[in-house]
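Much of our argument rests on the idea that a fold can be written as discrete symbols. The record that follows shows the chain in one-letter code together with its fold in token form.
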Amino acid sequence: MMRASVWLSGDSSSAPFLTRCIAVSGLMHALMAAFSISPVVMSARHERCGTPVFQSSSHSGSSAVLSVPDQIKAAENAVNAWEIKIDELVATLIARRQPAATDLRLVLVISKIVRDLERAGDEANKVAQMAQKAHESAHASAIGLSEVRAIGDQVLRMLGDALTAFARMDPEMALDVARDDKEVDRTYEAALRALATHMIEDPQEIGSVLNVMWVLRALERVGDHATNIAEHVIYLVKGTDIRHLSVTNVEETLKTTANLVN
């Protein structure tokens, strides 16, 4: 994730609090690895499956070319493995170190962020599967591709910003992600209305349009997971649970609550 590069590069000046949490260093290493995989999971959010490929070299010097669905499936499996590993690290850390206050919030937030990343990977895999079916269909259609691209770009940007907000412990950036989620919801609803109108006008395209709707739903859910990550960041930095609050109420909370993490 390009926007998460500040943390992934190991620049401690951007996240001084994280560098002081020596007790969770192993956990942070695992989480960074999971973050490095998640962009691959989302890389094909709006491509026609079977066309884009990437090439990797084996030890023998030969090359293997994988389609986007295969790439996403491999990345999702890696994310799933990291989720299990990080859950084990969280349990071990709590049992052995018994973290409290801010340290405990950090551990809990990491566990929740990993869960949201894993579920975002599940949604990306759904998109890949549906795109593969559309590509193989004898009635492949370009209906809805512009809507898929628009929402895909929005949610991928949100996911990157949410991870960067965590890397920088930046509640204001996290709040921007929550604001962006409202825009994604509006785009999603407008897309559904447009597609419903298309089905009424051309009933023969109902099957294709329904597939696009499922893809849009999966992408919208990725935006929800990005928003969840942003909410976790605000909880970590401010110590306030802002779930189920309106953006306006969250703005007021940020103004009146001091940072607990520097």
